[in-house]
Amino acid sequence: MQLHQLQSKTPRKSQKRVGRGGKRGTFSGHGTKGQKSRAGSSVRPGFRGGDNRIWQMFPKLRGASKKPGNSSPHPKHRFYQLKHDKPAVINLGFLNGLDDGQAVTPELLLEKGLIQSVKVGVKILGDGELKKKLSFRGVKISASAKEKIIKAGGAIE
Q: Which spans does this entry mark as compositional bias, Basic residues (predicted)?
């Protein structure tokens, strides 16, 4: 009997493998060099560049990019929000320093230094007690302030 005539009594379950490399030789599917080819590497998602473009999927608000032409976002963006300026607010309690029967206008409040600006308008809120008869013109008034003004004998035009 010769060596090449030897046979096993049970058939082989899988094909014989030889050590000449397999399906994932040399770089094991990680390519050559670079951060992602290293052992134990992980690139945090959410940063620009490479395969992690998650922030490029979201619409940006105004000023998100410094490129020319990107000063305002596209109006179809779901997360688009306009910056709304709010009116200057003042409480009723601060108006007791005015003269009795005086007409309260945005210009008067600005002149007395009770508000900073009248660019968007003025709103009177109902915090505090009103002890003077005042007439209000050209200002927005909250429901509680309206009640207190009428109770004090004032007028709203």
A: 10-23
